[in-house]
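Figure 2 data, in text form.
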Amino acid sequence: MIAKKLLSGMIFVGVISTSFGQESSKGIFSPSKLGIEFTQGNEKSFLFDDPDYYYLTNTLKAQFYYPLTQWKKFDISLIVQPQFQWIQHQLHNEQFVLPEVENYIEKRAKYTKLKSLSITAIEFTIDAQKKLFKNTYFFVQFGLGFAIIDTSTERLIGGFTFLENLNLGVEITTSSSTSLRLFGGIGHVSNLNFQLPNSGYNIVNTGISFQYSLQK
């Protein structure tokens, strides 16, 4: 099961990467930087810590950076991020599934078991970066993604959904063409009530990413 999920995620990232690579070598279809990012998110935090459920996600993202403009000493870029998320989820409070829900007894038994699920997505992130001092930069990001979640739970039905992320972090230049980013932030997954249930998930993220500049 895990192998199939990993393979599908790798194929998804590969297709997106190939489609960008087949575009013109100049203009908006030519990224200035490439990156890879690992993020871990958990609802157990000082911001959320919902006793009703457990949710832990590990995310691997490919990154394509496109410079947009400069604003008040901030360099603004668009980052296109195909990604795959491996998730562990469990309902702790069976009363969250109300008696008016069809087959609620069976669903309580099903949802209170620890389960694995996954999200495959593409996220479009606005990145604003400002130099602090030599080789060190501050950045803030806001991302919106379109996703497919493979398993229905008491909080979110499987299928099409959205994800949002807000991150703050620092970037450290490690060479003339490479850099390292460390960051933290908050994330949310839900489907805007297109289908029910749609309580969604709220998490605090921490992560690390590595970038390679294609500009000479």
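Caption note: Confidence is low (pLDDT under 50) at residues 1-25.
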